[in-house]
UniProtKB/TrEMBL annotation:
It comes from Perkinsus marinus (strain ATCC 50983 / TXsc). GO terms for cellular component: nucleus; proteasome regulatory particle, base subcomplex; proteasome storage granule. Keywords: Proteasome, Repeat. It comes from the Eukaryota. Residues 3-160 form the 26S proteasome non-ATPase regulatory subunit 1/RPN2 N-terminal domain. PANTHER family: 26S PROTEASOME NON-ATPASE REGULATORY SUBUNIT, 26S PROTEASOME NON-ATPASE REGULATORY SUBUNIT 1. Pfam families: RPN2_N (PF21505). InterPro entries: ARM-like, PSMD1_RPN2_N. This is 26s proteasome regulatory subunit rpn2, putative. One of its GO terms (biological process) is proteasome-mediated ubiquitin-dependent protein catabolic process.
Length: 219
């Protein structure tokens, strides 16, 4: 019930309230209410991140992401990455860059700090958790930069590509004149449409000599 009331209040603050100063006060109050819920699955992390985003507070978002990662919990890692995806989808590049560069998402370099043998053993025991956290931070930075989305889109398009290269070969074989710019260019355009977004250039590499015969606009 409380979560629904908070969502209703946030929605009205964004869609109904016109005064920017009053809206900011409402969002600040919502942040305080969100934080009264103990950190864990019950807290609305996505709503809290949205309030920080609307108030242009990237440092607080970075602190929140680090808090999620410090829990050493699968839920925390997944929620942190989901928030990173949501921020990247907002297309606020400057905000995402600031979040990625904040101190809470920086990996500390290990140095000679005079640790004892017992500390070394403890560090070895905690190494898997530390490595997992570093990996998550690296993934979050990649998501905020937009690189992860690009890789996923390319992988999806390449894996689900069902183009028939034999069809292109058949069209090329029935081309009346290999030096005709219209038909030549038409086949190249067919390939471009069929392989759009898949990064597959198998047909072009297999027909480099044929491509070299292009004239005029087909070049």
């Amino acid at each position: 019930m409380v979560a629904e009331m908070l969502l209703y209040c946030k929605t009205n603050a964004l869609e109904v309230v016109d005064d920017r100063q009053f809206r900011s006060k409402v969002l600040e109050l919502l942040i305080k209410i969100y934080k009264t819920v103990p950190a864990g699955r019950d807290r609305d992390w996505a709503g809290l991140a949205q309030c920080y985003f609307l108030l242009n507070k990237p440092e607080e978002v970075g602190t929140m992401l680090r808090e999620l990662l410090d829990d050493h919990d699968k839920f925390g890692r997944l929620m942190a990455m989901q928030i990173a995806f949501d921020l990247a989808d907002s297309e606020a590049q400057q905000f995402c860059q600031t979040v990625s560069a904040c101190d809470d998402l920086k990996l500390s370099d290990g140095g000679d700090t005079g640790v004892t043998e017992g500390d070394v053993k403890m560090e070895k025991a905690e190494a898997p958790a530390g490595d997992k956290k570093k990996e998550c931070i690296a993934n979050i930075k990649k998501i905020l930069a937009g690189d992860a989305q690009t890789d996923l889109n390319l992988e999806f398009l390449y894996r689900n590509s069902a183009t028939d290269l034999l069809l292109l070969d058949a069209i090329k074989a029935n081309q009346p004149d290999e030096r005709n710019s219209i038909t030549h260019n038409g086949i190249v355009l067919c390939h471009a449409l069929m392989q759009c977004g898949t990064t597959s250039d198998t047909f072009l590499r297999a027909n480099l000599e044929w491509l070299g015969k292009a004239v005029y606009w087909a070049k």
